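Action item from last meeting closed. Structure (383 res):
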């Protein structure tokens, strides 16, 4: 291959010149471009509740297009705010937020950045460490308010921040009488919908494998399961419910426990995908065909579920949207909006796949099949 050399010309000496930097876009420039007052633009950028949502969106879009960047230090001096949102992640949880943290944080950062705010993230390894970190970040003015994910039924973080007089918003709900702001996915509706789907296919015994006790999502999803049974005209049976299952190992154990009953369920709803993945292992051990001998529906929309054979039917949450809305609502609250006015509900989207379908066997027939296969396996081991 022939390569032609290019001559390089270097210029030195006093003739060298530099491009002039672009002038910084100011609020007055935005105001003139939009035909608004400086005060309206300023209040829109800082999320004041007296500015309409349409005006706020219009101002933010123009700021992004024109390259407006606020003087953070000057804003902090004038307002006493750091213009930073805070979040503390508990790293001692079973998956350390692996399932949702990337999209979730992207959504928060994107929405915060559009309004001239930043996101401060810290980690903790215990409840005490978490409370201390929240107090420290607030006390050092590292964050003006906090997003609290994975809410507990009795959430200690609420009292910690209330005592410190720091704004916060829950990603979820909690058992709290006093007003607070929250955004949540209505997972109780999702669980009820999963039961309704399975009942419509002909399943009459539907099990439920719940997540960790103490978390509000577990309480709500159990309520949704019971509501789904009632709507389908199916009786409640405590023997069809298992708790505290969030990993594949725990899910496999719970599934085996349900299926080896005298009258097993032909379908199981899981509160989290992590546990639902364990159902595949249990079905394989019992020589059952997933989606026909046993139907399973999860919740999370995890990528791991899509890799299973057959893929896991599940409910997917738009985590990026959730993060964006949490950031906007918290900034609104810091700007003066009342917490009790900041409530927003999202819905998960069903992603049907091969792990659920009409029952091939009745519960009694499934029980006989499992017992026969167990005897066959036992005989093979004895030989």
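Sequence:
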């Amino acid at each position: 291959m022939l390569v032609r050399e290019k001559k390089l010309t270097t210029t030195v000496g006093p003739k060298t010149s530099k491009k002039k930097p672009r002038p910084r876009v100011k609020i007055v420039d935005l105001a003139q471009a939009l035909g608004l007052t400086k005060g309206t633009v300023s209040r829109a950028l800082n999320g004041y509740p007296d500015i309409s949502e349409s005006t706020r969106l219009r101002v933010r879009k123009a700021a992004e297009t024109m390259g407006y960047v606020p003087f953070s230090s000057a804003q902090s001096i004038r307002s006493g705010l750091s213009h930073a949102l805070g979040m503390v992640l508990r790293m001692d949880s079973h998956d350390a937020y692996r399932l949702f943290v990337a999209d979730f944080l992207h959504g928060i950062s994107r929405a915060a950045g559009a309004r001239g705010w930043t996101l401060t993230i810290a980690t903790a390894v215990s409840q005490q460490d978490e409370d201390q970190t929240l107090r420290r970040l607030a006390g050092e003015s590292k964050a003006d308010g906090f997003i609290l994910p994975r809410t507990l039924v009795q959430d200690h973080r609420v009292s910690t921040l209330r005592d410190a007089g720091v704004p916060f918003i829950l990603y979820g709900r909690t058992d709290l009488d006093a007003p607070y702001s929250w955004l949540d996915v209505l997972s109780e509706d999702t669980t009820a919908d999963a039961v309704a789907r399975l009942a419509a296919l002909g399943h009459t015994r539907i099990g439920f494998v719940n997540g960790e006790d103490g978390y509000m999502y577990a309480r709500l999803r159990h309520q949704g399961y019971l509501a789904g049974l009632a709507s389908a005209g199916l009786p409640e049976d405590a023997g069809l419910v298992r708790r505290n299952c969030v990993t594949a190992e725990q899910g496999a154990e719970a599934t085996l426990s349900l299926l080896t009953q005298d009258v097993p369920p032909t379908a199981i709803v899981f509160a989290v995908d992590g546990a639902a993945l364990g159902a595949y292992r249990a079905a394989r051990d019992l020589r059952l065909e997933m989606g026909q001998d046993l139907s399973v529906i999860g919740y999370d929309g995890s990528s791991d579920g899509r890799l299973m054979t057959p893929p896991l039917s599940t409910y997917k949450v738009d985590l990026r949207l959730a993060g964006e809305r949490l950031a906007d609502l918290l900034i609104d609250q810091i700007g003066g909006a009342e917490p009790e006015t900041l409530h927003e509900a999202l819905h998960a989207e069903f992603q049907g796949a091969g792990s659920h379908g009409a029952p091939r066997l009745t519960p009694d027939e499934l029980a006989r099949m499992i017992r026969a296969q167990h005897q066959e396996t036992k005989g093979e081991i004895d030989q």
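Note appended to the action item: Residues 1-21, 71-78 have pLDDT under 50 and may be disordered.
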